[in-house]
Design brief:
heterodimer, A: alpha+beta, Methane Monooxygenase Hydroxylase, Chain G, domain 1, Serine Threonine Protein Phosphatase 5, Tetratricopeptide repeat, Thrombin, subunit H, 11 helices, B: about 210 residues, alpha/beta, Rossmann fold, 5 helices, 8 strands
Chain lengths: ~300, ~210
């Protein structure tokens, strides 16, 4: 095949790739033709063609940037939001408050933070889901990079009769931890002191759906040379009774026991007000491939039982 | 997870079209929407970006009528193919009963096909599902582009790349003109309903 035919063919492919939305492949084809032409100084109108091809490469680069750019999620129509709430509400609960909560959580998964916050606000009036709704409001603000809105919300709840000191204590620990993860130095005002009489009933109730905020977890190594030793990890994220920890790839013995589905029967969970003994099931284990935590594993543990150790 | 109502004898299941970005998942659903008008029981919902890429998912509800004494409803979904929408893909996959893996036949997309299939296996595993056991059908899409001079992977090469171990039904297709779309859907539904019958015993004996 002569050079002209070859170039024609590559350019035709590039046009098709671009029409298919495969801009990287199209750009590579244009670059390929540029390379071919640069090696052929005697081609007629070479400079003009090269200029045109370079413009095409730039156009493809612009489209790649647009596709790969992190545009904020669009605000969806009320009909689509209603559909999302219906399709992505996975809880089997029949309780209307929990159903409404799950629907609002589904909206957050698709970036519909504004609408979700409105729905969570409505649920603050329902005691059974108040804590979860409040936490989700804070999460939404932080996901939308609205740190001042989140802290203002928390401050507004201090003094709100719907929020007792225990609830505020949980929200304080929760938001402070999220702020730290975001690298914010904002110090939240402490909630009013928790009275012992308010605290005790919570600690005596075994209720996996209404767990305290867990700050740390201690895991006993059950096999290998370090068998019997304990290792401590900070909790990086918590959603209900599922906590996430980051385990370095250096901690091979720990990673070895953290197999999917494995139940760790002897863990200690540290909350702001007490230490609990309990068990945890490994729900997910994913290697972090990019960013400052690259090489770490993000491990999700579902807390399965509580027994108060002290506090 | 399919929902079976034994009293009303109704079953609703979820079929997800999975695959790399721009492989033609949405095009499959659009063709089904246009063609199976009698079976489409609601609006097709597509949430796209400006560049016409699936942002969150496409959704198409269908009714297959009565099969072996049971009313069958199917929800068809697509996932966003772009790598950066990993969390959304995983979310859409939740509760899946059957999967159509749409692979792009263009030679330049060979690696993307393999990566997407691996991503599917990983996401299924996170829901406790094994890619070797989930009802799965493959589609080798865009076969028509060969006629336009685009280098395509041969069917044999795609079988070797993607289906050597899985050994699931695979169909060449050109979703843009509907070629292979019906066969793919039919095989996926058969496989899914058969699997669900083993789990739920929904079908009445003939």
């Amino acid at each position: 095949m002569d050079l002209a035919s070859k170039i024609k063919e590559i350019l035709k492919q590039a046009e098709i790739y671009a029409a298919q939305g495969l801009f990287v492949e199209a750009r590579d084809n244009y670059r390929g033709v540029i390379d071919l032409l640069q090696a052929q100084p005697r081609v007629k109108d070479r400079e003009k063609i090269l200029k045109s091809l370079n413009a095409k490469v730039e156009a493809m680069k612009a489209r790649i940037r647009k596709v790969e750019g992190a545009a904020p999620p669009p605000v969806l129509s009320p009909e689509v939001q209603a559909l999302i709430k219906k399709l992505f509400r996975f809880s089997l609960s029949d309780d209307p408050d929990h159903v409404a909560l799950d629907g609002a959580v589904a909206l957050t998964k698709f970036g519909q933070y504004g609408s979700a916050i409105g729905e969570f606000e409505d649920l603050l009036g329902r005691p059974t889901v108040r804590l979860a709704a409040a936490k989700n409001i804070l999460r939404c603000h932080l996901a939308a990079d609205e740190i001042p809105a989140a802290t203002e919300k928390y401050r507004g709840w201090i003094g709100d009769p719907r929020f007792d000191s225990e609830l505020l204590g949980k929200l304080h620990a929760f938001l402070q931890s999220l702020l730290e993860q975001k690298g914010s130095a904002v110090e939240l005002p402490e909630p009013p002191r928790i009275l012992q009489s308010e605290m005790l009933p919570t600690l005596q109730v075994e209720a996996p759906d209404e767990v305290l905020d867990i700050n740390g977890v201690r895991i006993q190594i059950s096999e290998g040379p370090s068998k019997g030793l304990y290792v401590d990890y900070d909790v990086s994220f918590q959603s209900g009774n599922v906590i996430s920890i980051l385990v370095s790839e250096q901690d091979a013995e720990v990673l070895n026991i953290l197999q999917l589905g494995e139940i760790l029967s002897n863990v200690e969970l540290t909350a702001a007000v007490a230490i609990f003994k309990g068990s945890a099931k490994v729900m997910a284990k994913n290697r972090i491939k990019v960013g400052p935590r690259s090489g770490f594993f993000n491990v999700d543990l579902k807390i399965r039982a509580f027994a108060v150790s002290c506090g | 997870m399919a929902v079976f109502n034994p009293k009303k004898r109704e079953i609703e299941c979820k079929l997800v079209y999975y695959g790399p970005g721009r492989c033609g998942k949405t095009t499959n659903l659009e063709w089904i929407h246009r063609t199976f008008t009698k079976n489409v029981v609601g609006k097709m919902v597509s949430i796209n970006t400006d560049g016409d890429r699936t942002l969150f998912f496409d959704f198409l509800p269908m009714g297959l009528g009565k099969i072996r004494g049971c009313e069958i409803r199917v929800q068809l979904y697509t996932v966003p193919g772009q790598v950066k929408y990993s969390a959304t893909r995983k979310l859409v996959l939740k509760g899946v009963d059957g999967v159509v893996f749409v692979a792009d036949s263009m030679a330049v997309r060979r690696e993307k096909n393999a990566l997407s299939l691996k991503d599917l296996a990983t996401n299924l595993k996170e829901y406790g599902l094994n890619i070797f056991k989930v009802p799965l059908v493959m589609q080798f899409n865009k076969r028509d582009l060969g006629a336009e001079g685009v280098p395509l992977l041969s069917i044999e090469q795609m079988q070797r790349d993607l289906n050597r171990q899985l050994k699931v039904p695979a169909f060449p297709a050109s979703a843009l003109n509907g070629e292979g779309v019906r066969d793919t859907l039919k095989a996926a539904l058969e496989s899914t309903l058969k699997h669900l019958h083993q789990e739920m015993r929904w079908a009445q004996p003939t």
